[in-house]
Write a structure and sequence with these properties.
Cu-oxidase_C; single chain; signal; 502 residues; oxidoreductase; binds copper (II) ion; Immunoglobulin-like; binds CU-O-CU linkage
Length: 502
């Protein structure tokens, strides 16, 4: 397939950005002239058995591979102009161990700059490691070398582009992949599972010719959500299971803006980890909640034969003016539990998990940071994000009153500090706060949810609310970023730098 450059596709799809009604009329008139239906793109693989992305393992302490970002992948059983790594969305699952080095040559065959972020990894943000300030131009390659510390927790992480201004387009387009840290030999908890699945959830909107829909200004303000929700690039796949057996499912919310409140019909989900770190013990849940970027690992124990729907319920994530902003209901998959008679009892859940002991020490500083949004004339006066993303008068998303500037140090922290941050949200919608490199524990939240006590890297800050976090800056020096993981907001300016100096 010949990939059509994104800019041209955009021009083709939307004669008038933001003119939703006009676009619909145009499609109708094309349909009547052509005399055939122009049905929207629809999945062609619903119900197929769940696939896993290709798995690439480290050998002798090193994982070396090339990731080629390009347009033209199969999604949900159809050829599309969506984006992928190595012809696939999600890209290959990278599997490494603590102490390994991850050597990735990123080759950019897109028509826009890109780069690579290892989301959630506790690794250096400097040089050619997990450095969000790097820029890999179209037609070029860049060699990343990421040293995974020997004491890195084992768990579920992911990778995606992070070039400011293009992040939402590129992730929505399909540039995501799972990154698993396996336990070091001898450190594994006794999880007696018959299957260990990555469930990478993404959403996308495609035109009937397989081009990715461009968002309107309104879509970006709310945070775009795709019409089709996919797991591992498949639409509502079937997950086979045997009664009595136990499976591990690693959910990754790779959606640009969608919040996932996931349930499995007729079953509890036994949560064992969040954002790549274990809970103290399996926690039975009727629902697990993932903001954009979050991961949740669960154990599933199918009970009786039958077909059970895995779905995300409608979740209201805020409002704008008089309109509510809701992540709509989405069917995700069907668990198909076989009729095989099983005599053995349910596989026992582990009593305890290898939970991490938190970094000890007194809090050395407190600070607060404010996530806000300005519309209209004020926004025009404030300037805007990069790349002319904000026209004067459009909505501007800020942190502490400013849009992102990669050259400015917004927070300066001494290496070794243990800080308490209060993240304040003055807007009527939830923003998922994400900090690179240095995971935090949530101490309290304005919505009253009880903190889980283990480190995480994304937390939803409630509308007109706040969260209080404890952040040990004790591991790596260097500059990196924190931002809203509704990636449209990040691209519109809701990102700031933190410089941790030795
Ligand atoms: Cu998943 Cu800074 O991002
Ligand atoms: Cu946001």
């Amino acid at each position: 397939m010949t990939p059509v450059p994104i800019s041209r596709r955009r021009a083709l799809i939307l004669g008038g950005i933001g003119a939703v009604a006009a676009t619909a009329v145009a499609i109708d008139s094309v349909a009547s002239h052509a005399g055939s239906g122009t049905e929207r793109w629809s999945p062609a693989d619903t119900g197929n058995q769940l696939n896993q992305p290709a798995m690439v393992d480290s050998k002798d302490g090193r994982l070396e591979l090339e990731l080629i970002a390009a347009a033209g992948v199969r999604l949900a059983g159809r050829d599309t102009h969506a984006l992928g790594f190595n012809d696939s969305s999600p890209g290959p699952t990278l599997r490494v161990r603590p102490g390994d080095e991850l050597a990735v040559r990123l080759t950019n065959r897109l028509d826009k700059p890109t780069n690579l972020h290892t989301h959630g990894l506790r690794v250096s943000p400097l040089g050619n490691s997990d450095n969000p300030f790097l820029r890999v131009d179209p037609g070029t390659s860049f060699d990343y070398l990421i040293q995974i510390p020997p004491d890195h927790p084992a768990g579920t992480f992911w990778y995606h582009p992070h070039h400011h201004g293009m992040v939402a387009d590129q992730i929505f387009g399909g540039l995501v992949g799972a990154l698993l840290i396996d336990p070091s030999p001898g450190q594994a908890p006794a999880l007696d599972v018959t299957a260990d699945h990555v469930l990478m959830v993404t959403d996308i909107t495609l035109a009937d010719d397989g081009t990715v829909a461009a968002p309107s200004a309104m879509d970006r303000d709310r945070g775009r959500e795709g019409e089709v929700v996919l797991i591992n690039g498949q639409h509502c796949p079937t997950i086979p299971a045997d009664p009595g057996g136990m499976q591990r499912w690693r959910f990754i919310n790779g959606c640009v803006s969608r919040v996932l409140a996931i349930r499995l019909q007729g079953h509890q989900l036994f949560q064992i980890a969040r954002d790549g770190t274990y809970l103290p013990a399996p926690a039975p849940k009727n629902e697990v909640l993932l903001g954009p970027g979050n991961r949740v690992d669960v154990l599933v124990r199918p009970t009786a034969p039958g077909r059970y729907q895995l779905s995300a319920r409608a979740y209201q994530r805020g409002s704008m003016g008089s309109m509510t902003i809701t992540s709509g209901f989405a069917g995700l998959a069907t668990m198909d539990v076989s009729q095989i008679p099983v005599t053995q009892p349910l596989t026992p859940l582990p009593d305890a998990l290898p939970v991490e002991t938190p970094t000890m020490g007194a809090v050395t500083a407190q600070r607060q940071t404010i996530f806000a949004m300005t519309t209209g004339a004020d926004a025009g006066a404030m300037g805007g994000g990069m790349d002319g993303a904000n026209d004067a008068g459009a909505t501007v998303f800020t942190i502490d009153g400013r849009t992102f500037d990669s050259a400015r140090d917004d927070q300066t922290v001494a290496l070794g500090a243990i800080e308490e941050w209060t993240v304040i949200n003055t807007t009527p919608m939830a923003h998922p706060f994400h900090l690179h490199v240095w995971p935090f524990t949530v101490l309290a939240s304005s919505d009253g949810t009880s903190p889980i006590g283990t480190p995480q890297d994304v937390v939803l800050v409630p509308p007109q609310g706040w969260v209080r976090l404890r952040i040990p800056f004790t591991t790596f020096p260097g500059r990196s970023v924190y931002h809203c993981h509704v990636l449209d907001h990040e691209d519109l300016g809701m990102m700031a730098t933190v410089n941790v100096h030795p």
